[in-house]
Every structure is written in structure tokens, then in C-alpha cells.
Amino acid sequence: MARIRCFEDRTQGLKEAGEIPGSIHLAIGQEGIPVGFCHELENADMVGATYRGHGWALAKGISPAGIFAEMMGRDSPLNGGRGASLYFSSAKHGFLGENSIVGAGAPIAAGAALAARNARNGRVVVSTFGDGAMNQGVVLETLNIAAVMALPIIFVIENNVYSEMSPIVDMMRGESLASRVAGFGIPSYTVDGNNPLAVIGAARDAISRARRGDGPTFVEAKTVRLAGHYSGDTQHYRDAEELAGAWKDEPITRMRKDADDQTLRTYDLIDAEVAAEIDGDLAAARSLPYPDPATAKRHLYAS
Predict the structure, then answer these.
(1) String of b and e for 141-173 (b: at least 16 CB within 10 Å)?
(2) Which site among 51, 77, 107, 150 is 20 to 30 Å from 243 CA-CA?
(3) Residue 92 CA: distances (Å) to CA of 3, 44, 57, 71, 124
(4) What residue numbers bound the domain in which 44 lies?
(5) Does residue 3 lie within any of the structural domains?
């Protein structure tokens, strides 16, 4: 979680300094969810994320240097600067990639899960998206297909309170988002996304179920997005008091609050090590050249 937080902090600084072109979407405050799930995933398992997917990519093992370079438009080892912050992927890490279209990653992940089921290779797939995606028809269609075909997939909804700038309570009714999947016959959990141990517990059950061939599971992880929806978002839709309260309950603050002195010293060491690591990764990314313009059409057409 410290690595993701430090990475996102540096990313915000890079954007403000003009080193990252285009938009970025930070996952500050949501670190416990990707860390909890990827703790239980095997290397061969796959993850499909949204445009707020840096944390999932890092938790899946992708180098921070590669992601920095990708966002900066450098000739990165990931996608050569073509994916930027919103679309980078890494097949060797089982990272299916991000997607800036709300909910569009769900059917892609379901396709990967279908391939895994047919190959009988024991792989499972995690499809993660935000609360706003629950109003997208393609997500509901994918839930139905996954249930009918008993696909080895876990749908993880990161309920961070706001669908872009709109409070979730203004967008849909019901006790929880997880309750909406009951009609598909999919087991569901609602967990505290700011508690990584709770996330690990839900992930372990859902992943075991998928690997046994018992079909999909839906996990609603409740959290709060501490940054704006996108770079430059003034967050006029929520007041300072609400945001200050959220900062007191985010996963890293919560772990520090419950720690004894010795554990706090360990956390301080981890923070220092991570900061040095991330700064080294950033330097490595800055050392890479920009792509050759002559290669702009590479990968667009089949040979």
C-alpha cells in the first residue's frame, strides 16, 4: 500500500509539473483493495482494471518505472508510450489493461475467463470497476453471461462513494450495490475496502470458488476516493469536512492508528525504502527516450 501511495503522490507531482500529458486518475485511499486481492492471486491469474488502475498494476507486479515511462509518453517497456495512464497493459504480468470507457473492461475480462475455463488451466480473472459502472448495460449483461457459463471470474466493485462527481446515493437505490446481483444468482460480499485483511478474506473465498469451477463472485469493497476524479478536479461537489473525515479512515492511516511503537518504526522504514525505490524508478523512466515518430503506425495493422 505504501508503494502505491508513494507512486500516486509522485504521479500527481509529475502531472502538476507538466511531465505527464493527458489526464490521470489517482487511486489514493483505495490501496487496500488491489493489495488485498493480489495477495491471493497467482502470477498466472489476470486482472482487468479501469482507468483508475495504477494500484492494481503495481500490486500485480508491474515495475513502477515502466508505468512512469508509459504515462510520460516515453518509449516504455510496457506499451512504448502508447497506452499512457489510461490504457497500458502487460500480458506477462496478467494485467489485461485499463479502459477509460466505464464498465467496458468487464466483457474483456469475461472473455479471458472463458478462455481460462475452456483451457482448464486453473486461472481466475478479476474484473474491477467503479460504482458508476453498475448502471452500464454491458456490466449487467456480463454478470449474466458469467453466471450462466460459470466463468472463473470475480467482479470487484470499488465503491468510492462518487461516480465521477455524483454521489452514488443520488444515482441508484437499494441497500448495497452487491444486493443488485442477487437476480443473477451470483454470490456476493460487501467488505470494508479500507481494511486489507477483510479484503484478503473475501478474495480468498471468491478465488477458491472460481478455481473450483463454481463460477463468479461479486465483491463490493467500500472505500473513499481521496483525490479528485481526474487531474484538475476541484472537488466542488464535497466539502472539506467530509474529505478530512475520509483521510482519518483511509487504510494506511488506520493501520498506523492501530500499531504499537515498534510496528510504527517498521512502517517508517518501509515508507523510507519505498520512497527511495520510487525515486529510482522515476529516474529510470526519465532516462528513457521518447518513441521514434516513424513508429507511430506500428501495431495498428496486421502484417
Answers:
(1) ebbebbbeeebbbbbbbbbbebbeeeebeeeee
(2) 51
(3) 21, 8, 12, 19, 15
(4) 29-52+93-281
(5) no
pLDDT per residue, tens digit, the chain (303 aa), is 999 999 999 999 999 999 999 899 999 999 999 999 999 999 999 999 999 999 999 999 999 999 999 999 999 999 999 999 999 999 999 999 999 899 999 999 999 999 999 999 999 999 999 988 998 999 999 999 999 999 999 999 999 888 887 887 877 777 688 888 989 999 999 999 999 999 999 999 999 999 999 999 999 999 998 888 888 888 888 888 888 888 899 999 999 998 999 999 999 999 999 999 999 999 999 999 999 999 988 888 887
Cα dist from 259 to 1, 58, 149, 252, 269, whole Å: 16, 25, 45, 11, 14
- DSSP letter (8 states) at residue 175: S
SS (H, E, C) 263-278: HHHHHHHHHHHHHHHH
Cα separation, 139 vs 127, in Å, equals 10
What pTM was computed for the model? 0.93
The number of folded domains in the chain is 1
Distance of alpha carbon 224 from alpha carbon 76, whole angstroms? 31
Q: What is the CATH number of the domain that holds 200?
A: 3.40.50.970
DSSP 90: B
Residue type, 69: A
